[in-house]
């Protein structure tokens, strides 16, 4: 039996994955910046779905941007609400956003940076 105790992080983080049309990546990253998200990475890719599947899903382009961000758990609902509010105002907006819980992390400095904790 170990004498070490598990430490709970004071600020819980989630990984927010946003997949949108490539041309809309800057728009969605600007939303993230307005919520003081310290780390986002944009990965550009092409979907592999056939034209039939794209048509069935109502999608017309396969060039996508995948935005991976580390966000404070308390801000997730507000970010998604902002996405939804802005989403309907953007022409040809198509995409998806979801979160993944971040339950463990190695590196105190990395955690502090992602959580926006200053010493």
Overview features:
alpha+beta; elongated; 4 strands; 119 residues; 30% helix; four-stranded antiparallel beta sheet; Alpha-Beta Plaits
If you had to describe this structure to a student in words, what would you say it looks like?
This protein has 119 residues and is α+β, with helices and mostly antiparallel strands. It has a single domain, classed as Alpha-Beta Plaits. 30% of the residues lie in helices and 29% in strands. It contains four helices and four strands, in the order E-H-E-H-E-H-E-H. It has helices spanning 25-33, 51-57, 76-87, 108-115; strands at residues 13-21, 39-46, 63-72, 95-101. A four-stranded antiparallel sheet has the order 2-3-1-4. The two termini are 33 Å apart.
CATH architecture: 2-Layer Sandwich
Within the largest sheet, what's the order of strands? 2-3-1-4
Global mean pLDDT: 83
**Largest β sheet strand count, sense and barrel closure:** 4 strands, antiparallel
Quaternary structure state of the chains depicted: single chain
The N- and C-terminal alpha carbons lie at a distance of 33 Å
Number of domain modules? 1
Helix content: 25-40%
């Amino acid at each position: 039996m170990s004498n070490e105790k598990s430490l709970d992080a004071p600020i819980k983080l989630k990984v927010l994955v946003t997949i949108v049309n490539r041309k809309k990546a800057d728009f969605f990253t600007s939303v993230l910046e307005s919520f003081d998200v310290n780390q986002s990475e944009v990965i550009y890719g092409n979907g592999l779905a056939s034209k039939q599947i794209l048509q069935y899903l109502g999608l017309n382009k396969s060039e996508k941007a995948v935005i991976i961000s580390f966000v404070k758990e308390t801000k997730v609902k507000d970010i998604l609400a902002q996405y939804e509010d802005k989403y309907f105002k953007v022409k040809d907006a198509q995409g998806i956003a979801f979160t993944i819980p971040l339950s463990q992390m190695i590196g105190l400095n990395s955690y502090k940076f992602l959580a926006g904790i200053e010493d």
